[in-house]
Amino acid sequence: RWTPAKIAEETIERVRAQVGEDHVLLGLSGGVDSAVVAALLHQAIGEQLICVFVDNGLLRAGEADQVMATFARHMGVRVVKVDAEERFLARLAGVDDPEQKRKRIGNTFIEVFEQEAARHPEVRWLAQGTIYPDVIESAGARTGKAKVIKSHHNVGGLPERMQLKLLEPLRELFKDEVRKLGLELGLPADMVYRHPFPGPGLGVRILGEVHKDYADRLRLADAIFIEELRRAGLYDQVSQAFAVFLPVRSVGVVGDNRQYAHVIALRAVETIDFMTARWAELPYDFLAQVSHRIVNEVAGISRVVYDVTGKPPGTIEWE
Ligand code: XMP
Asked: Which residues form the GMPS ATP-PPase domain (predicted)?
């Protein structure tokens, strides 16, 4: 019978037999899958695991700190944090096409990751958080976007170029199994049940050209939205929720002053498989509270709108 404890035990044994005394490199993204791989490998091979966490400047509020606190401080995992915000923003300067932005972010990620890997010549394996649905997805014919998702998240092509063997301990598991395994391995529930976050991060939630001050404002607005969802007990009732930065300006009156400032859109969806989705019917008083807080607490935002588009015809992300 499948129990998380049994899966953990078996997988740990298998990993030990597979890698022996070798060193393993893992890119931590802040997402569930790579987090579970980190916890698993840490138990299996301890100091032989080296994690790399790239702060690309497009993460959610507090994300880098949370990853470092959970893995480095609490669990004692070896995590190297690379501060690459400036590099990513420089590579994104002047680029407004969504697919082009995805490509640049993906390529910069690989660059940074390879550079970091070069500092650890003892490494023989690259671990990835590939799960069973990823395996199926890349086997079938898929849209361009799905391939981009794969190639960024799971750094496709990298192991060959770096002459590393690939370690994918979650390959046979479904998402809910991965989550249960994560809890079994001692990961905090709020990390395990976190909404998905795209590899390109806020890069595709700032429409058009990415600027640092846009990212900072979006981070703040998004954090308010998520905090209020948690406070209202709504976070786990939606599948994914986030704020989007719209670089159009709208007139408003904030305090006693007329403002000509940017717009934040809120998006919350309910879905099983993320292939189709319904917009979440969040209570009006809840939306009013979030809107009120964002306009008052985030400088440069004068208006908040709620996205009432399903998928299809919309996508979940705005880019
Ligand atoms: P869409 O916008 O296509 O999103 O309806 C479906 C799910 O995929 C996520 N998503 C991405 N994830 N890289 C990722 O790793 C990407 O480029 C990407 N684009 C969308 C999105 O957040 C949603 O969960």
From this structure: 2-194
